[in-house]
Design brief:
It holds the Pfam family Choline_kinase. Belongs to the choline/ethanolamine kinase family. Helices cover about 45% and strands about 10% of the residues. By secondary structure, the chain is an alpha+beta fold. It has 2 domains: about 130 residues, Phosphorylase Kinase, domain 1, CATH 3.30.200.20; about 240 residues, Aminoglycoside phosphotransferase (APH), C-terminal lobe (Aminoglycoside 3'-phosphotransferase, Chain: A, domain 2, Alpha-Beta Complex). The strands form 4 sheets. The protein has a 4-stranded mixed sheet with strand order 1-2-3-4. A two-stranded antiparallel sheet has the order 5-8. It is globular, with a radius of gyration of 21 Å.
């Protein structure tokens, strides 16, 4: 079975082909997942309904090396429909398909043309197929335009990745969505949360500690802090973690943990812009710190680890912010951006200190946001091994640890 960091090195060809893969298969899978089935006229075979898709790809064997034949047939039809070209000419037996581990709310597969089949036009020779497992449409913060714009323009190192995302002028609502989305998830949960907590936590009744009213109140406190933060509104990925970063196949990581590359090469690309939206810049960096200590490689329940020792050091953050600001300076010369460059200080050290403050205060926002998300997904029947209740409770505990720093906005 493939992991994102190892096997997705197999996503060969240029960054443009990788972009085409993401754009064609991921965005169209989104569209296909949510449109009325009658509106999709397939020239190949009938594609299953969204519910049938989730059930089909959620088969136990489909998530392991042994992929059922009916899954391969369906995948071939999806690729033929959305990628076209040579994908229309191959049989299911010729399709090369491997599952990718690491996703906690969707299923991801690497699909490739056989080596002896030559592309007919601009279609990619390999692609990513993502099957959304959640039924909640409100979880998508933006439309397929996000895939189209981001996949073609994002490369470079992590600081540069953040900068290139933040500088984009994307034609969606330019307002911070984090509280609105979290409130939407909370409203969906409602009174079911207390029942769910008692059902999962038989020995310890946490229903009085984690309730709708408690979380609603915490969101109101966060809203006050965000309004006082002064953090600029920029386009954010919102979920840039280990499972959403691909290392291109021609690059390796040396024994020191560095890329063996020249100065102008682009070794990594982000994927999975499901939660991308305009948001407070601080959320992106606060979320980065949170994800730095979360490891989703655990193959036993609860299927993740919290590794506090992996919190990034000030030196690491300083390097990240310097790289970020270097790329912002470079990209802002392009007039088609939304980044509030007029608010950037000419004093580099002062600007870095602003980023440090945001990065140290915003983790609380990320923890509460993803805890509510996790409780929401726990209410759905997902074909993914992950303890959403445990994860949500851990993120709540981390939220309360980080909350005092966030409250500094109200005292400054």
């Amino acid at each position: 079975m493939y992991s994102n960091i190892d096997v997705l090195k197999k996503l060969k060809s240029s960054a443009r082909n990788h972009a085409a893969a993401i754009k064609s298969i991921c965005s169209n899978t989104l569209r296909f997942r949510f449109q009325n089935q009658k509106s999709l006229q397939m020239s190949v075979a009938k594609i299953p309904t969204p519910c049938e898709l989730k059930k089909l790809f959620g088969q136990p064997n489909a998530k392991n090396e042994e992929i059922p034949y009916d899954v391969i047939v369906c995948t071939r039809e999806l690729c033929a429909r959305y990628l076209g070209g040579a994908w229309n000419t191959i049989s299911p037996e010729q399709l090369r398909m491997q599952p990718i581990i690491g996703g906690i709310s969707n299923l991801l597969f690497l699909v490739e043309l056989p080596e002896n089949v030559v592309p007919e036009g601009g279609e990619p020779v390999c692609s990513l197929l993502r099957i959304h497992c959640s039924d909640d449409l409100d979880r998508l913060l933006s439309e397929a335009v996000v895939f189209t714009m981001l996949s073609e323009s994002i490369t470079k190192h992590l600081g540069k990745v953040f900068a290139r995302i933040h500088i984009l002028n994307v034609p969606i609502a330019k307002k911070a969505m984090v509280i609105e989305v979290a409130n939407g998830w909370l409203e969906k949960l409602g009174d079911k949360m207390r029942h769910k907590m008692r059902l999962k936590m038989v020995q310890t009744d946490l229903s009085k500690l984690v309730t709708y009213a408690v979380l609603k109140n915490e969101l109101e406190i966060i809203q006050l802090c965000l309004e006082k933060s002064g953090s600029p509104i920029v386009f954010c990925h919102n979920d840039l973690q280990e499972g959403n970063i691909l290392l291109h196949n021609q690059y390796t990581i040396n024994e020191n943990g560095d890329f063996d590359i020249s100065e102008n090469e682009d070794p990594i690309s982000p994927i999975d812009f499901e939660y991308a939206s305009y948001n407070y810049r601080g959320f992106e960096f606060g979320n980065y710190i949170c994800e730095y200590m979360l490891d989703y490689g655990n193959d036993k329940s609860p299927f993740y680890w919290v590794k506090r020792e992996r919190t990034p050091s000030d030196e690491q953050l300083y390097y990240l912010f310097n790289s970020y600001l270097d790329e912002i300076d470079k990209q802002k010369r392009n007039g088609d951006h939304f980044y509030p460059v007029k608010n950037l200080s000419l004093n580099r050290e002062a600007e870095i200190q602003k980023l440090f403050i945001e990065a140290r205060r915003f983790p609380a926002v990320s923890h509460l946001f993803w805890s509510i998300w996790s409780f929401c997904l726990a209410d759905e029947s997902l074909p993914i091994s992950f303890d959403y209740i445990s994860y949500g409770l851990d993120r709540i505990a981390l939220y309360y640890e980080c909350k005092p720093r966030l409250l500094e906005y109200l005292n400054s």
